Amino acid sequence: MSACLSVCLPLSVWLFEMRIPNCFSPCSGYLWFWGIVFVVSTSFVWFIKTESDDSHDETEGVLSAYWTLWKILKLPSVMKLCIILLSSKAAFAAAEAVAGLKLIEYGVHKEQLALLAIPMVPLQVVLPILVSKYTAGPKPMDMFLKSYPFRMLMGIEFALLVWITPKMQLADGTFPAAYYGLVLLSYAVHQVALYGMFVSVMGFFARISDPIIGGTYMTLLNTVYNLGGNWPNTLVLSLVDDLTWATCTEGTLSGQACQKPEQREACKSAGGTCSTDVDGFYVQMVICTVFGLFWFRFFRKRISALQDLPESAWRIRAK
C-alpha cells in the first residue's frame, strides 16, 4: 500500500506531462483527465465489488469517527509517534524549502528547474518499488533510520550547491551544462533518501493501523506526518530575511540595513547596492543541521522501541 501511494501520484503527473491528453491547458487538462479516470475506476469497483459485513466498524457516523480519532490520539504509543512525526523533518527544512529559491535568486531560471523535475518522475516511480523490498516486514522504520543521516547530508550538499552557483555563472548570466547536470544529480540522489524515509513511514503506518477503522487510522497518521513537514518549511521561509544581515552600499542610504525586500528596493532606488554580509539561508542550515544531529541521537532508540511494541499498544479499546 505504501509503495502504491508513492508510485501512483508521480506516475499520474508523468503521464500528463507526456501529453495525455494534449489538447488542454496544463492545470485544467490534468484535473479533467484524472477526474474522468477517477469516476470510471470508482464506478467499476462499485459494480464488481460486493460489500462485506461492517457491523464491527465503530465509525458509524461523523461524530463517532472524530471521537474514535481522539481515542487514537490519546494512546501513549501514538502520542510518542506524533512527537516524532511532527519534529522529524525540521532538520531538512532550510535545505528543501529555501535552497531552490536561492538558486533562482542567484540567476537560475525557474523554467530550467521545472524542466529538471521531469526526469525525476520516472525515478520517483521506480524508487518506492525498490525501497518497499526493504520496508516489508516487522521493522519498516529501519530504513527510515538509515535514510535520515543521508538526507541530512544531502541538505548540506544543497547548501554547497547554492554556494557555488554564483561562481559557475557565465558572463552572459547563463550556466553551463555541467552545472545543470550537477543540479540534476543532486536532486536524484536526494530522492533516494526522501523516498527511503517516506516509504518506510507509510509501511509502518500500514502495519500498526487498527483494522477496526480501516484507512481512517492511516489518514490521521499521514496528516500528522505531512504537518511535520509543513510547519518547519513555513517557519524557515518566514525567518530567512530576519536572519540575513545586509547593508546598503553607496547611494543616499549607504550604511543602512537592507535585508527586507522593501529595504532592498529602497536601496536600489536610492542608487545603492544591497550587499549581503551574512545570508540567513546558511544560518538556518547550521541551526537545522545541529537540530537534526541532536534529534537523531535522541529519537533513534525510541523509534526502534516503537517498532517492538505489540499490536495491542496501537489498538483502541471500548470503554
Task: Describe the protein's topology.
Layout: H1 2-17, H2 26-48, H3 62-73, H4 76-87, H5 93-105, H6 110-117, H7 120-135, H8 141-168, H9 177-208, H10 215-239, E1 245-249, H11 261-269, E2 273-278, H12 280-307
Antiparallel strand pairs: 1-2
Low-confidence stretches: 19-25
Task: Provide the gyration radius in Å.
Answer: 24 Å
Question: What general outline do the C-alpha atoms trace?
Answer: globular
Oligomeric state of the chains in view? single chain
Walkthrough of the structure:
With 319 residues, this protein is mainly alpha-helical. Helices cover 70% and strands 3% of the residues. It contains 12 helices and 2 strands, in the order H-H-H-H-H-H-H-H-H-H-E-H-E-H. A two-stranded antiparallel sheet has the order 1-2. The longest helix has 32 residues, at 177-208. The two termini are 31 Å apart.
Properties at a glance:
single chain; 319 residues; mainly alpha; two-stranded antiparallel sheet; 12 helices; globular
Short description:
This protein has twelve helices and two strands, in the order H-H-H-H-H-H-H-H-H-H-E-H-E-H.
